[in-house]
Design a protein that fits this description.
With 194 residues, the chain is mainly alpha-helical. The protein is built from seven helices and no strands.
């Protein structure tokens, strides 16, 4: 009975196992030679692909260097152009407007100092306040003039023309606003003197 069980187990297990057949067993050398021939053919194919890859790499790396040099020159030129101020910026009307408001504000500051100095001393101390306000106006004008000069001079700021003009326009608007306030204050001081 044990023998029958062993034979049945062997048959059941034998059907599920994959093993070499007798023909494969006796032809292993032939099979091995076949596999080696396939590997040699694949290696030869890979060798030709490898040679082509090396050729592409050698010419490609030179091409990358050429592209890199060209790209670097283009970027260098772009950033160098940001340092230069174009005539379109320096000849724009806003530059003249800034200069005009600067002169007018300096005169208004002197007038404010003079008008407040002629007022009688009061607890509000108009003469001292007038000189301080005049000094603050002159300081603000000088700061705006310096900013405008930096925007209109080469190698001071790295900006394109549109950004330079936008900042100059902002300075012009600030000076215009300061001038209106200065004239308003001067009018008040002149009324107080009357």
């Amino acid at each position: 009975m044990k023998e029958v069980l062993l034979v049945l187990c062997g048959l059941l297990i034998g059907r599920q196992l994959m093993a070499q057949t007798f023909s494969e067993w006796f032809r292993q050398n032939h099979t091995q030679l076949k596999y080696l021939a396939e590997q040699i053919a694949a290696l030869r194919g890979y060798g030709s692909v490898l040679e082509k890859g090396y050729a592409v790499a050698q010419t490609g790396l030179g091409e990358i260097d050429t592209i890199d040099t060209t790209d670097l020159a283009m970027h260098t030129e772009h950033f160098a152009s940001l340092d230069r101020v174009s005539p379109a910026v320096t000849e724009d009307g806003v530059v003249g407007t800034i200069a005009s408001y600067s002169k007018l504000l300096m005169m208004a500051a002197d007038d404010i100092a003079a008008a407040s100095g002629s007022l009688p001393a009061t607890p509000a101390n108009f003469p001292v306040m007038g000189r301080e306000v005049a000094g603050d106006i002159k300081e603000a004008v000088e700061d705006y003039q310096k900013q405008a000069a930096d925007l209109c001079t080469d190698d001071r700021l790295q900006l394109n023309d549109a950004e330079r003009l936008r900042r100059l326009d902002t300075i012009s608007r600030e000076l215009r606003s300061l001038y209106r306030k200065s004239i308003f204050l001067l009018g008040l001081l002149e009324e107080a003197n009357v």
